[in-house]
Amino acid sequence: MMSLPESSSRPYEECGVFGVWGVPDAAALTALGLHALQHRGQESAGIVSFDGNAFHQHKGLGLVGEVFADGDVMSALPGHVAIGHNRYATAGGTHVRNVQPLYADYAFGGLAVAHNGNLTNAKTLRQALVRRGCIFHSAMDTEVFVHLIAISLYNTVIDRLMDAAKQVKGAYSLITLTPDDGMIGLRDPLGVRPLVLGRMPGYEEDNGGWVLASETCALDIIDAEYVRDVEPGEIVVINADGVKSLKPFGDKGRRFCVFEYIYFARPDSILEGKSVYDARTQIGRELARESAIDADVIVPVPDSGVPSALGYAAESGIPFELGIIRNHYVGRTFIEPTDQIRNLGVRMKHSANRSVLEGRRVVLVDDSIVRGTTSRKIVDMVRAAGAKEVHMRITSPPTKHSCFYGIDTPEESKLLAAQHSLEDMRKAIGVDTLAFVSFDGLYQALGYSDRNDGGRNYCDACFSGEYPITLVDKMGKLVQ
Ligand code: SF4
């Protein structure tokens, strides 16, 4: 896992994965799917297709629309099956060799792998594999998977994949492409990272049209219908025989990442049967009930704060206004900027709408406070636009711990909530009042009675410090 740039103040999703089987122009549909998943990673994109005889690949740094803009590039990706990947990475990790999908030739022919998440024993396994003579070409956890599959002694690709999956620990969703077994999807045993199964109508006769994607918004863009979420620990094998489901891990429960609902996923996605938009709206309502304040306007910090602010406004009866305007045209140049430009980053992305803010008591609704630097800049900007009072309401509990499951967060010493009391945070951000949604309130918004009830179904380790998957590398343990 990469670390955030020093001054970055938001957690970033590491990746989005997409695959489609049994349709003409599979690569073009994959490019559209990746475009819908662009919010999960903006640094690089890649597609591998298979035409029945050979694999074809194209990968590059940049947004999907930049990497796959050229018609010649798309026509060099023929085939009825393709998988793709979006990646977020920092300056140090932005190398073409780290762009997925990863493709390798091994005993069973070719194998392409697109992976979202993080293995918590990747370092340990990697050391063991290197001692056995494996040569690594990238810094990605995905390559550990590929080597484990390549050296496995089992006789089929599926058995080798299961063998590899049983050796790794972590939170991941994986899509692989093989010449003989088709497209294979795999979700980690606790289902921390998302993966959904969909189908494009019109290809039923040939058993085609199957789609795997990180989120349902990637199904919508290609007119595919949502079939179901891939279950935690489930392997789905998709080929001319249809979809075969394998559950090599048995039932270990489920611990879906609760931060997907709060921040990462696109609001029009449905994950684990719940609308992300509805979840955010309900969290906003809960926050209004828990920490009401007299104010004139409810203002979201765009974009993820918008549905929650609508919920907060509806519950409180205070008008919702767009007091902060987001510039959607901040190009890639500014995603990995110089320090000087980075310091101006908030103003490049957000502008204060003076007509809404001047002389008003403002409630700002945001999803999280990580380092606090972005929050401080936004509050300063809102005050400079004439706000009389600024109150901050956060739709997650305080982020006190790092994520080791594929979401790129700073180390604990850099997290504002890990180091400061609520009152010190309030002062550091410069607001009149500051409140976070409670754990119970968060789970009530998701339809449970409290955290005891709901928390069993989710990972909330970055708030609670209760990590559901052993952090093997961090603990320095050896995996047998
Ligand atoms: S630690 Fe936080 S961000 Fe990471 S998987 Fe768990 S809930 Fe999601």
UniProtKB/TrEMBL annotation:
It catalyses: 5-phospho-beta-D-ribosylamine + L-glutamate + diphosphate = 5-phospho-alpha-D-ribose 1-diphosphate + L-glutamine + H2O. Binds 1 Mg(2+) ion per subunit. Binds 1 [4Fe-4S] cluster per subunit. Pathway: Purine metabolism; IMP biosynthesis via de novo pathway; N(1)-(5-phospho-D-ribosyl)glycinamide from 5-phospho-alpha-D-ribose 1-diphosphate: step 1/2. Residues 15-241 form the Glutamine amidotransferase type-2 domain. In the C-terminal section; belongs to the purine/pyrimidine phosphoribosyltransferase family. Mg(2+) binds at residues 304, 366-367. Pfam families: GATase_6, Pribosyltran. CDD domains: GPATase_N, PRTases_typeI. Its cofactor is Mg(2+); [4Fe-4S] cluster. The active site is at 15 (nucleophile). Keywords: 4Fe-4S, Glutamine amidotransferase, Glycosyltransferase, Iron, Iron-sulfur, Magnesium, Metal-binding, Purine biosynthesis, Transferase. The keyword Ligase does not apply. The keyword Glycosyltransferase applies. [4Fe-4S] cluster binds at residues 257, 403, 459, 462. NCBIfam families: purF. Its EC number is 2.4.2.14. Catalyzes the formation of phosphoribosylamine from phosphoribosylpyrophosphate (PRPP) and glutamine. This is Amidophosphoribosyltransferase.
